[in-house]
UniProtKB/TrEMBL annotation:
Domain of life: Bacteria
Protein name: ABC transporter ATP-binding protein
Keyword Cell membrane: no
Region (Disordered), start-end ranges: 332-388
Taxonomic lineage of the native organism: Bacteria, Bacillati, Actinomycetota, Actinomycetes, Kitasatosporales
Record's compositionally biased regions (Basic and acidic residues): 378-388
SUPFAM superfamilies to which the protein is assigned, alphabetical: P-loop containing nucleoside triphosphate hydrolases
Biased composition (Low complexity): 351-364
InterPro entries: AAA+_ATPase, ABC_transporter-like_ATP-bd, P-loop_NTPase
Bias-annotated ranges (Pro residues): 332-350
Amino acid sequence: MIEAVRLTKRYGAKTAVDDLSFQVRPGVVTGFLGPNGSGKSTTMRMILGLDRPTSGRVTIGGHPFRELPNAPRQVGALLDARAVHGGRTARSHLLALAQLAGIPARRVDEVLGVVGLQDVARRRSKGFSLGMGQRLGIAAALLGDPQVLLFDEPVNGLDPEGILWVRNLMKALAAEGRTVFVSSHLMSEMALTADHLVVIGRGRLLADMSVREFIATNSAGFARVRTPAGEPEQREKLVAALTGAGGFVLSEPDGALRVTGLPLPRVSDLAHDAGVRLWELSPHQASLEEAYMRMTQTAVDYRSTDDRLAELGPVPEQPPVVPDVPLEGWYAPPPPAPVPVPAPAAPPVPAGAAAAPAASGGPADADRAGGGGPQQSRTHESSTEDAR
Ligand SMILES: Nc1ncnc2c1ncn2[C@@H]1O[C@H](COP(=O)(O)OP(=O)(O)OP(=O)(O)O)[C@@H](O)[C@H]1O
């Protein structure tokens, strides 16, 4: 078992790992998840005695790594797959490691077979692809047949087949009763590989739970509700009604509302009682990736200025401007283009008239086009906006 207790690492003013406590148990794959720069590699380096904690401690089987007897036989790690002497062949690289650790040479050929590099074993590793390099790094980690394994981003650079292979290897190693600790910044990958998750952001612990628990807690259902565009008072009234009834309301990037804590029919009743018209009321399920991004969004060091997720905060006091162009997919498809009803008294329709209502988009245009009642003219208005 790996155990970190109040583990902290500072580099000058930068706190890379901040008061982190967790345990990694044998027999399961534990995913170590966090955005770029969150402190995963630093934590792994401290576990392996390559970095000294500023405070706190981390042990493997009750001992700091440096005090473990015959460490290479007990702990294997893939930290940086590029840290290989490129002039050496895959086999000679592994042989050198095996000799240093007192591991018999036949084990080298065994692990080369396990990772599927037997056919290129005598090729210099500088000609290896990223994926082949990852496989070689994994072979090195497996050399001593250790009970504890650490893998830092092992699927980096692998193709889908390679990713599947790593996933199955991690599971098989854990099923043999080993302690498997694997870092990634991809929730989707960890959901498929890990049984347990340790999630960090800016060096601090955000979650320590089973994947099953993480899914149950974070991928809750929610309702998307949209009030008519250009009527912010309707939106405000609805937010007040929903929060007053115990709902939790978030703003979506397109101006819709995301409501949790209230069943869909209740949302509908509350809107009706508040006299608010709805343009959309639909059930949704938050994806695990989204839940993870929400969890870590305040703990991300580097974010694109174009990151729409940043807008997924709580509803601001001033509702955001609702964009004129609705996002595709949230609306029922527009009805077929209305067919003008021929009226003997009306002047002849000039060529290109079908485009004219789209340019102005007003209900009067819709009516002129023979759209009929208010429902139809409203729908027509939406469809012309969609077309824009
Ligand atoms: N030797 C160092 N000196 C100064 N700062 C460092 C050093 N090593 C890491 N850091 C900083 O500590 C923070 C954590 O880095 P770390 O590499 O542990 O994160 P990570 O989660 O592994 O990120 P990534 O997924 O990008 O590899 C980063 O802000 C990094 O810049």
